[in-house]
Each structure stands twice: as C-alpha cells, then as structure tokens.
Description:
It contains three helices and ten strands. The chain is of the alpha+beta class. The strands form two sheets. Strands 4, 5, 6, 7, 8, 9 and 10 form a seven-stranded mixed β-sheet that branches. Strands 1-2-3 form a three-stranded antiparallel β-sheet, with no helix packed on it. The two termini are 29 Å apart. The model has no long low-confidence stretch (mean pLDDT 94).
Amino acid sequence: MNDARARVLGTRRVYEGKLLRIDLEEVELPGGDRTEVEIIRHPGAAAVLPFLDEQRVVLIRQYRHAVGGFIVEVPAGKLDRPGEAPEECVQRELREETGYRCRRLVPLGRILTTPGFTDEVIWLYEAHDLEVGASACEPGEEIEVFEATWEQALVLLRRGEIIDAKSVACLAHAALRRGVAAFP
C-alpha cells in the first residue's frame, strides 16, 4: 500500500453547522496533479448492536428525513465533544435511543463511511449484559425500538431491508465474530 499523501496548498471553510463543517481544499496529489476537493468534516460517531442474549438483538426504526422515511438501524450517534471516547458515546446513545444500559462492550472495529468526501469514522460495538431502563430521545428524533432474533436480523440484512451502512457493517462484523456468513 502506498502511504504517499497529498500536500494541502490551501483550505477555505465554506460552511460550519451543528453537525458538520465543509472545507474546500486545494491539494497537490501524490502523483503531482493539483485539484480542488470538497471535504465534509465530521466529529466521528459510534454504533452498537445490543444483544439481549445470544439469540436476540435490539434494533430501531428511525425516521430519516434525508431519505424520506423510516429505516432499520442499530443505535448510534455522533461524538458530542472533542475527546469523547467512542465507548462513552455508544453507551449514551444506547440509553437515549433504546433505554438499555450495558455492562459489557465488545469492539468490532471501525468504518470510513464515505471517504470520497468525508473524514467521518464510525466505531462499531456489540453490547452485552443489558439492563432495561427508560429511553430519552433527543428532540426531533422519531425512534421505534424492537427486538429481533439474531437470525431475523440477518434475514433483514440479506433481503436488503437494512441498508444503512453503519448497521450493515455492524451486523456483518458481528456475524464474522460468530463465524456466520452474513451474506451466504
């Protein structure tokens, strides 16, 4: 793998909002070509697949305005402050979105969501030893929590009913961890 990097010749911030920032960078690519690149800067996020036991998981249906409806996902959220550990974030999001707390997290890795235009990284986890509690969704979040068997979750994945990238990756990594083919 080639570790060469582009040389940044200039950066201009074109947008800064609550969730993300957009930079326009002039760069010299490793091969010498110069180009202008739009980059969405994101603080990062964490996602979790909660296991009630070895046969049952917790999933959510969340309304996503950008795609025009509800989609099936694993609980997740962005890192809220600089230096927040992904484990802290995922514990908070699990409580807020599902009401569950967990005593044990298993790291599954991380993904780059769309490296062609954003630096967003999402850390993936399994949650075990859950305790039920009350959810506390943020204003503007519409979330339905539901249980599925592990096999039902994999069927949703195989049928293309789970299409959210972080959720696909989380389920696929959990399947690999169990020695199960997520996409046979």
